[in-house]
Amino acid sequence: MDIEKIRTLIALMEESELANLEISSDDEHISLTRHYDAPVPTMMAAPTAGAAPVAADTKPAAKAGSVETSPMVGVFYSAPSPNDPPFVKVGQKVQAGDTLGIIEAMKIMNPLEATQSGVIDEILVDNSEVVQFGQPVIRYKA
Hints:
Layout: H1 3-16, E1 20-24, E2 29-35, E3 38-44, E4 67-69, E5 74-77, E6 93-94, E7 99-105, E8 108-113, E9 118-123, E10 129-131, E11 136-140
Antiparallel strand pairs: 1-2, 2-3, 4-11, 5-7, 5-10, 6-9, 7-8, 9-11
């Protein structure tokens, strides 16, 4: 495991104010967690090959239906401003290209647009919640 790679990842976490970062490859697994009351990230070593995997959380089975994922790390906003209605609601029909929300990253408001047409089944994140790259945000009905 290259310590310089780990230092670079820690610096990137601090710059972007990420709370968690996890990277896996065939032979390495790095998980960094930043605690805001303790500014030093903690590192967890990967289990050696042959060790039984440990389930951290037992999650319910995934629901059917495709999802829209966050294209970046940022803060998700469901409406253009606090006094405006949300862009979408559960049960609403949307077309590809419709705005589903806004993701604020580095003080820039980026629209999260629908990549497909469908009916909103579930909004998976709360307003003003920090989202990670690739995190599911909206689920469409199957």
